[in-house]
Amino acid sequence: MADYYTTLAIPRTASDDDIKQSYRRLAMQHHPDKNNGSKESEDKFKALTEAYDVLRNPQKRAAYDRYGEAGLRGAAGGAGGFHHVDLSEALNIFMRDFGLGDLFGQAGGGGRQPAGPRGGADVKVDLMLSLAEVATGVSKTVKIKLLDPCDRCGGSGAESGTRPKRCTTCAGAGEVRRAQRSFFGQFVSVAPCPTCSGEGVMISSPCKSCRGEGRQRGEHSLPIEVPAGVATGQYMHLRGVGNAGVRGGPRGDVLVMFDVGEDDRFERDGEDLFTEVLVSFPQAVKGADVEVPGVLGPMSLRVPPGTQSGQLFQLRGRGLPRVNAGGTGDLHVRVQVWIPKELSKDEQAAVEELARVLAPPPEKREKGFWQSMKEALGA
Ligand SMILES: [Zn+2]
Ligand SMILES: [Zn+2]
Q1: Could you tell me if 327 and 347 lie in one domain?
Q2: If 120 and its partner were Cys, which of 37, 245, 286, 317 is the partner (CB 3.0–4.6 Å)?
Q3: Do 341 and 277 reside in the same domain of the chain?
């Protein structure tokens, strides 16, 4: 398995822009429509797209940088997680990010599309989620505006009582072949039929409702089952429920982009959560049960006697579920000793008394303190 950076011919320090540009350049070169479906360029195109799909996603890229391909199979893969892309996915990814205009420009089509109506465009919808919804997974309904097959003509684009006719220019094939002579002999070029734009059929009397396009606007409620553990930037790919194609073409896809709202009680790192609680000096000295925030409600943490300020505790399995994998992350709780800035008279007196009787701190920390401090800080 070639390294993704090598595949895209970029250094490991490449910026998002570098990644996009290099992919675009190489993918256009190896796009199957430009290479008469050669197996070799098809494989190259798939490999390029897979590398691009991972490296353009910051979370997947970080996981890949640390653990290689293995890092993409676990938690970091996420919804629509890691797998080898097949050709249609690769073509979809390329289309989604660059469109076909980019590929063919003014040069004219490469004509590998079969005759028939074209598929509808993909639609992106954003879905806001709270951290609590991420913790449990949730069923949601999104309202979405789509193009539907026209009611009047059933999507054919032809006025009722008439039918689309076979295109006379291309005899229904959707493409025209032109034999040309050159110094090297005769060669044949293939292009989409200019009369029917490659559809193979012609409409002599267009439907009065949709003017022959075969589509009309509609609004839909789309039910979405959000799996637990998803993160911002991950998405769900719902195939075949997007916009209807022109004149009976198949529906495109819907991409549901997840956007998880910030919860200022928590920092999130994949499936792990970090939070902080404050304890008083006596609580840290004597130990105490303190309440810590959990995604699904408060929890209790036993702070043992002699707890240091900044000490980190782990509540195993109280983080977020791993998406596309088993298990749940942890909740890491940093305990900080609260130092009040203003004191009541009684408190003032008590602190004075404490100052009188309490031994001064040792000159040196216990052995091992700095090590555990570093660990607590995540170094
Ligand atoms: Zn119509
Ligand atoms: Zn035609």
Answers
A1: yes
A2: 245
A3: yes
Question: Above 50 in pLDDT, residue 105?
Answer: no
Q: pLDDT of 182-201, one tens digit each?
A: 776 777 778 888 888 888 88
For residue 3, give both structure tokens. Answer: 């390294």
What is residue 219's predicted lDDT score, i.e. its pLDDT?
A: 95
Strands 175-182 and 185-192: antiparallel
For 32, the domain range is 1-109
Q: Say which ligand is closest to the CA of 166.
A: 2
With 0-12 CB in 10 A as exposed, 13-18 as middle and 19+ as buried, what is 146?
Answer: buried
Q: What is the dihedral of CA 94, 96, 99, 103, to 10 degrees?
A: 0
Q: Out of 73-77, 107-111, 306-310, give the one with best mean pLDDT.
A: 306-310
Distance 176 CA to ligand 2 centre (A): 8
Same structural domain for residues 52 and 22? yes
247: CA distance to ligand 2 center in Å? 15
Half-sphere exposure of residue 331: CA atoms within 13 angstroms, side-chain side: 23
**Predicted model pTM:** 0.59
Quote the CA–CA distance of 41 and 198 in Å, as a whole number: 25
Tokens of 341: 């800035």
For residue 230, pLDDT beyond 80: yes
